[in-house]
Specification:
Length: 220
């Protein structure tokens, strides 16, 4: 029986790219057209961590908006994914490439998941050993446990041998439910979230973050 590789799944949109801020700006712009002024409180109470359609339906009920939550969810999904695709290449920094290289040097398989343009991101990363996984989640600011499991299983990884690198407390919780270990990447937009259960929480994805992942995976 072949030995399974140890790996890492990086939630690119929220852990590398500042997707939480992009999502807030995108949602704010769309909701303004429906007479809703989105702020951090409304986002935290009604949107964060929820499925787009369900979260928007809850928000609309709270503010007495009669918009079609399903239609607005589709609009938000398309707009956010397009914004991620447009900004992804600029987020492939030397620090991120050092993160990848540090893991690869120790034989760890690197999977990078995105809701944006997977082919364009792969071209920007320009490393044939990195797998860019096209993620289809429609969860506000994170992904659910099944998305983490799907990213592992579609790329020959087992959850128990894989670390998740995620940009939210919701993502940490979902990765743990999926059976993975988790490294949280925090920023001002998500620092209110509960990152409990993460092996560690940092604010930059670089070689030091890769060293933490190696310890999580017990790779020396």
């Amino acid at each position: 029986m072949a030995k399974m590789s140890k790996g890492v799944v990086v939630e690119f949109d929220f852990a590398v790219l500042n997707g939480s801020e992009i999502l807030f700006e995108t949602a704010s712009s769309i909701l303004k057209g429906y007479g809703i002024t989105l702020d951090a409180r409304l986002e935290a109470l009604h949107l964060a961590g929820g499925n787009y359609q369900g979260a928007l339906a809850e928000l609309f009920g709270k503010v007495d908006c009669e918009a079609d939550a399903a239609a607005v969810a589709r609009e938000l999904n398309a707009a956010f994914n397009a914004a991620v695709a447009a900004k992804a290449a600029a987020a492939v920094t030397p620090a991120f490439k050092n993160f990848i290289q540090t893991l690869q040097d120790k034989g760890v398989k690197v999977v990078v998941a995105t809701r944006g343009d997977a082919a364009a991101l792969a071209e920007a990363i320009a490393d044939p050993q990195v797998v860019v996984h096209a993620e289809t989640s429609s969860t506000y600011g994170s992904c659910k446990w099944d998305a983490w499991k799907r990213a592992c299983r579609h790329n020959g990884l087992h959850e128990m041998l894989t670390a998740a690198v995620t940009g939210s407390g919701f993502g940490v919780r979902a990765a743990l439910v999926a059976g993975m270990s988790a490294l949280g990447i925090s920023n001002k937009r998500v620092e209110w979230q509960d990152f409990g259960g993460a092996d560690d929480v940092v604010d930059t994805i670089d070689k030091d973050a890769a060293d933490i992942v190696l310890k999580m995976l017990k790779v020396s």
